[in-house]
Amino acid sequence: MTAQAHEPSYTPGLKLQGLTQAEAQEAINTYAKHVKLQVGTRAKLREAVDHAYIDDIPLVSEATQKQAKRTANARVRLIQDEGVATYTSLASLRGTKEGGARSWVNRLRQENLLFTVEASGKTLVPLTQLTSDGQLDELVSQHLVKPLLSAGMEPWSLWSWITSPTGLLSGEVPAIAVRTELKRVDRAVERRVADLAFPAGA
């Protein structure tokens, strides 16, 4: 085995001239530790920068955030302006126990005759589809709620549509017009159902 085999390998960035073999090996080991520390530090720095950068990026786009805010505001308006009943208040209106009111709602909901919405972990029954004594409003139920639910319309959207002016009725509100212009309302609902089946751009 030649003496050359015992010589430490050359490491870029180190000047080994004039050093003994032991000194050179120690210098190489020290340099290797320094490089390893630099690499580890760079990795930690990159990780910190990545986290800081990601933390500054919204999880959803600004447009999506604005849409969510508009949706939330619309739902608050519906609850405040149109009114809702809880199972407890519905039971009071109907003169029954809460369990009876809950069963009544569940049965009608399964038949698409009545819809409920969820807010803050509570089930709410929009008053639009009820009479003043807590009974089912047959006109609203049969001519508005049932066909729209059966067509797959989401409850919040359904509630908004039947209580808002619509161009399909020349600016009239479906839940009001259904009492005096039933045929026009039926035609408007048919067109709305068709829109649900074949949305624009589909």
Features:
single chain; 202 residues; mainly alpha; three-stranded antiparallel sheet; 58% helix; elongated
Protein model, in words:
This protein is mostly helical and 202 residues long. Helix content is 58%, strand content 5%. The protein contains eight helices and three strands. It has helices at 21-55, 62-82, 87-94, 98-110, 138-150, 155-162, 174-177, 182-197, and strands at residues 84-85, 117-119, 122-126. It has a three-stranded antiparallel beta sheet. A hairpin with a 2-residue loop joins strand 2 and strand 3 (122-126). Helix 3 (87-94) crosses helix 4 and helix 5 (138-150) packs parallel to helix 8 (182-197). The longest helix has 35 residues, at 21-55. The N and C termini lie far apart (81 Å). Mean pLDDT is 81; it is low at 1-11.
Note the topology:
Elements: H1 21-55, H2 62-82, E1 84-85, H3 87-94, H4 98-110, E2 117-119, E3 122-126, H5 138-150, H6 155-162, H7 174-177, H8 182-197
Antiparallel strand pairs: 1-3, 2-3
- Measured as a percent range, the helix fraction is 55-70%
Strand content: under 5%
Give the strand order of the largest sheet, numbering strands 1, 2, ... along the chain: 1-3-2
Query: Cα distance, first to last residue?
Result: 81 Å
Radius of gyration (Å): 35 Å
Low-confidence stretches: 1-11
Task: Sum up the overall morphology in one term.
Answer: elongated
Overall pLDDT metric: 81
Helix tally equals 8
Return the structural class.
mainly alpha
Main sheet specs: 3 strands, antiparallel
Strands, count: 3
List SSEs in N-to-C order: HHEHHEEHHHH
